[in-house]
Write a structure and sequence with these properties.
The strands form three sheets. Strands 6-8-2-1-11 form a five-stranded antiparallel β-sheet, with no helix packed on it. 16% of the residues are buried. β9 (153-159) and β10 (166-171) form a beta hairpin. It is of the alpha+beta class. The protein is built from one helix and eleven strands; from the N terminus they run αβββββββββββ. 26% of the residues lie in helices and 35% in strands. The chain has two domains: 1-55; 59-181, Sandwich (Immunoglobulin-like), CATH 2.60.40. The termini are far apart.
Length: 183
């Protein structure tokens, strides 16, 4: 008599091993996919926060913008204004700011310096000795401009090291005095 072997139990064991292998592979794959998803979400969140920080300006004009007339009262020689931090704004290093002047015939970067034909911090209010514009502080800024005449429209752009450009768009009055309020 011939003996026959029953392979049913062995086939069930093989199936269980294959099933466990598939479960382990699926778990590892899902872990990798979820990890990549969390990493991507975190990077997207960082990009959004950085974008909001750079797109918002932390600086604002406090009060009026004044223009100083030249000796013959035929054009402006300087404009003067006070800047302060916006509510909740971060501190700005004002000395790192780039100032540009733009009108119909001029487009120039105005250098930061303490000499003529430049821009400078003329005074500091409620401030310490550094050039950081912090909450509650105000800086009086004086910018030399290339002689815009009566009714001339011009823009002075303030570009901090981090943040958006703050444009100051003004028009020279028809009659230039020693000190002029610029609308």
């Amino acid at each position: 008599m011939k003996r026959q072997f029953n392979d049913n139990a062995f086939t069930g064991l093989e199936a269980a091993i294959v099933l466990i292998a598939f479960i382990v592979v699926a778990a590892v794959f899902s872990y990798v996919v979820l990890g990549a998803g969390f990493f991507t979400t975190q990077k997207s969140q960082e990009v959004v926060h950085t974008g909001v920080q750079q797109a918002s300006s932390s600086m604002e004009i406090v009060g009026y913008v004044y223009g100083t007339g030249n000796a013959g009262k035929t054009a402006l020689s300087n404009i003067t204004f006070v800047v302060g931090n916006t509510a909740g704004g971060t501190a700005l290093d004002v000395e790192q700011m780039i100032v540009t002047y733009v009108d119909e015939t001029h487009h120039q970067v105005v250098d930061y310096n303490t000499t003529d034909n430049c821009w400078k911090i003329s005074a500091k209010y409620n401030a310490n000795d550094n050039a950081l514009l912090e909450t509650g502080e105000q800086f009086l800024i004086d910018v030399a401009v290339p002689s815009p005449g009566p009714n001339a429209q011009f823009t002075v752009n303030l570009q901090p090291a981090a943040g958006a450009v703050y444009p100051i768009k003004k028009t020279v009055p028809p009659a230039i005095e020693a000190i002029n309020l610029l609308p």
